[in-house]
Amino acid sequence: MYLDLKKIIKFFTKLYFLIFIVTLPYKHCLTAELHIGVASNFLMPMNAIKQTFESENNTKIFLSSGSSGSLYSQIINGAPLDIFLSADQVLPKKLENTTKGIKGTRFTYATGKLLLFSTKKDLFNLTFPNIILSKKIKYIGLGNPKYVPYGMAAKEVLESLKISKIIEKKFVLSKNVNQVFLMNYYGNLDIGFIAKSDFIIKNEKGKVWDIPQNLYRPIKQDVILLKGGEKKSEARLFLKFLSSKSVKEKLNSLGYNVN
Q1: Domains 28-111+219-253 and 113-215 share a fold
Q2: Does domain 113-215 have CATH number 3.10.180.10?
Q3: H helices within 30-130, ranges in order?
Q4: pTM for this entry
Q5: Tag placement on the chain: N or C end, fewer CB within 10 Å?
């Protein structure tokens, strides 16, 4: 029996590509997808967590970042998110009482720290809280307290010091706490209330002043599973991963308090 080698090679080549085309959609659907809304202050740590989780699990994570208030509004209005990492406890608690959040899944994944930050060298010799009342200060940055938990904390600090009304004309309100840091970093503000994590992760210049914890309520940041992720085993796996020892150690090194 005579076999044509060229025909055999051609046959198996076609067979290989046929199998590849047929199995390609199947292979693609094996990769699970998670859509996570994350507060702006936590975006950088979340990117590191995301990479580790994706490498250890057959899952692709897509992030949506913004102020906690804006993300909450998006979720209420039907944004297709599976998990919400807020910069406060209030908004995840609200979601628990709606059809959007899954009761029993909310927990505190980190507690943030508020700092005062400046890159203006002529301010470096001043002390807290006197620096805030300095005549050298023209612009004070903080996140909009209506939408930004770190901005609300800054407002509490100023109210505790009883100086909020005295300096309110100097306020520059930002849509998220990261924007406050960047405006300070590039010299567009004199001082600003920032997240400690931003200073640790991004800072190459400037000075920070510690703010006593008794001047503002702890910035406890909660996460909650959303309706979109209720039936996704990967979503619950991610929540478990978020509370793992390795992630806690990472967050502690990035300026968060994690128990």
Answers
A1: yes
A2: no
A3: 43-56, 68-76, 90-96
A4: 0.85
A5: N
> CA nearest 101: which of 124, 123, 112, 85?
85
Residue 117: CB partners within 8 Å, gap ≥ 6? 181, 184, 191, 192, 193, 194, 199, 206, 207, 208, 209
> Sign of dihedral through CA atoms 33, 36, 41, 45?
negative
Instruction: Identify the residue whose tokens are 């008794």.
Output: 214
Domain boundaries of the chain, sorted by first residue: 28-111+219-253, 113-215
Per-residue pLDDT of the chain (259 residues; tens, 9 = 90+): 444 555 554 554 444 444 433 444 444 445 799 999 999 999 999 999 999 999 999 999 999 999 999 999 999 999 999 999 999 999 999 999 999 999 999 999 999 999 999 999 999 999 999 999 999 999 999 999 999 999 999 999 999 999 999 999 999 999 999 999 999 999 999 999 999 999 998 877 899 999 999 999 999 999 999 999 999 999 999 999 999 999 999 999 999 999 7
Say which CATH topology domain 28-111+219-253 has: D-Maltodextrin-Binding Protein; domain 2 (3.40.190)
Report which of 214, 197, 229, 234 is spatially closest to residue 109, judged by C-alpha positions.
Answer: 197
Q: How far apart are the first and last CA of the chain?
A: 76
Amino acid at 135: K
